[in-house]
Amino acid sequence: MTQEQKVLIVDDEPEHCMVISRALGAAGYNTQIANDGSRAIDLSRQNHFDLYLLDIRMQPLDGIQVLQEIRNLYPDSQAIMLSALGDVDVAVKCMKLGAYDFLSKPVNLDELLITVSNAMKSIQLQQEVQSLRSQIQIQQSTDHLLGESPKMQELLKAIEQVSRHDITVMIRGESGTGKELAARALHASSRRATAPFVSVDCATLPETLVESELFGYERGAFTGASGRKIGRFEQAANGTLFMDEIGNLNVNVQVKLLRVLQERKFRRLGGKEELPFAATIITATNVNLERAIREGTFREDLYYRLNEFVLRIPPLRERREDIPLLVKHLLDMFNRKFEKTIRDVSPEVLHVFLHYQWPGNVREMKNIIKRAVVLADDIIEIQHLPEQQVAQPEPAAELKGSTEKPSATGTSLKDIVKYEMAKLECRVIKETLEACHWNRTNAAKKLEIDYKTLYNKMKEYDIG
Question: pLDDT tens across 404-461, in order?
């Protein structure tokens, strides 16, 4: 038993609470006591308890009301209901609300310890299942993050390192590069992996509803507020709140977000009570926030609060060596989805993919291959690609070195990729040299290679 397994005993009979607390403490559980429902809810907002022992007959809030509130705050927590009344209807109602079990008072301590142990095992099992689901979700949808290129390996290493710490992360990258998947990977690798991951796209929220979506509201807060609504901040609990397209928030909401980050508290619309906020915040943007600060549309103080650690996701055109790997992954994925057996893409298609600029990044590739798998019967050919992709002019860069152009048939995919990447490398070196007025020292610095490597590459490709 570990001290992290925390139990809150809620009963208006102090002596009964003490008896249970001593028994659970002797068994290795960390216990706290609340003698009324309101105090139980207050303690729950300050701490996360794994298990609640709730007396049903309490005033002014009874155990069922407390259970409902706890289930809103922490859906993964368990509750055991206690009552001196052997009321079957009440027991059924509690079970429907998510209670783990129902015990009659006075409680048999041996029975209680067995029930608590089973409840804790159930919690652990739920956490393991949720963690596995998160990992599977990441593995099944990592087409955006898949890659063996140096830039992607650097990104994946950074995700692994930063996920060990509670730090506000800003993910930057173009549309379609996989910013939400990076956020999910951060969450799945962190100690919060079994807690909720809550995502909100700030760009899609109507301006009039942003605050109510983020912070929730109380009944009567505005016209049409017929009941309480739990917002995204509250849903995130002790997990992760991912705010995509953060640059789209209006200045008024930015002020409130800054206050939440500073004080770690927020208030529902129409509410008087301040609620603690314990989740980690991850934000993402594809806009230039520095320019937005200069233009007065984004607060500089909020920017520095959110900018504690930056992850930059490279666009696909900067990691073309990952394209064959992504193609294979996506082919496998859509073959399974559509129950097809497309074997590969043709050399001509791979040539187009390696030279295409990919303005929509991996999301665009995913859509193109999905369409092609539907149309093709065996191999994806040029005719299965969208017209605008095929029509894009090919960069002019021919190899003059010893590398021979492979034939369209009878050549391995590895040889085709090697040729195309060499062709691309030749073009990049030549363009960089031209931009540096053929100053080899400056070109080597710009390419982030040493002078000798540049010299050898120029000799290999017969450049200059």
Answer: 555 555 556 666 667 777 777 888 888 888 788 788 888 888 888 888 888 888 888 7
**Would the pTM count as exceeding 0.90?**
no
Return the pLDDT at 423: 79
- What is the pairing mode between strands 265-267 and 274-276? antiparallel
- Both tokens of 124, joined, read 């652990």
What's the topology of domain 395-464? Arc Repressor Mutant, subunit A (1.10.10)
The 10s digit of each residue's pLDDT in 221-271 is 888 788 888 899 999 988 999 999 999 999 999 999 999 999 999 999 998
The pLDDT value given to residue 214: 93
Note whether 159 and 311 are within 8 A (CB): yes
pLDDT of amino acid 245: 93
Q: Which residues is 51 bridged to in the sheet?
A: 7, 78
The answer to whether 301 and 258 have CB atoms below 8 angstroms apart is yes
CATH 1.10.8.60 intervals, the chain: 316-393
Any residues with CB less than 8 A from the CB of 160 and at least 6 apart, and which? 189
| pLDDT score, position 419 | 72
DSSP category for residue 203: T
Is residue 412 helix, strand or coil?
A: coil
Using DSSP, how many helices (H) and how many strands (E) does the chain show? 19, 14
Answer for the pair 201, 248: CB distance below 8 angstroms, yes or no.
no
| Residue 142 CB neighbour total at 10 angstroms | 17
Instruction: Round to whole Å and give the CA distance between 214 and 206.
Output: 12
Task: Return the CA Rg of the chain.
Answer: 29
Copy the structure tokens of residue 414: 């590895």
316-393, what's its fold? Helicase, Ruva Protein; domain 3 (1.10.8)
Q: Where in the chain is the domain with CATH 3.40.50.300?
A: 148-314
Sequence-distant contacts of 415-424: CB under 8 A, at least 24 apart: 416/347, 416/350, 416/351, 417/324, 417/350, 417/354, 420/350, 420/351, 420/354, 420/355, 421/320, 421/321, 421/354, 422/461, 423/397, 423/398, 423/399, 424/320, 424/354, 424/355, 424/397
Contact 149, 313 (CB under 8 A): no
Check: CATH 3.40.50.2300 for 6-129?
Answer: yes
Q: Edge-to-edge, what's the strand order for the sheet holding 101-104?
A: 30-34, 6-10, 51-55, 78-83, 101-104
Spell out the residues 6+ positions from residue 120 whose beta carbon is closer than 8 angstroms to its own.
5, 50, 51, 78
Q: Which residues of the chain have pLDDT under 50?
A: 1-3, 140-143, 393-398, 401-402
Alpha helices in 356-437 (DSSP H): 361-375, 387-390, 413-435
CATH superfamily for domain 148-314: P-loop containing nucleotide triphosphate hydrolases (3.40.50.300)
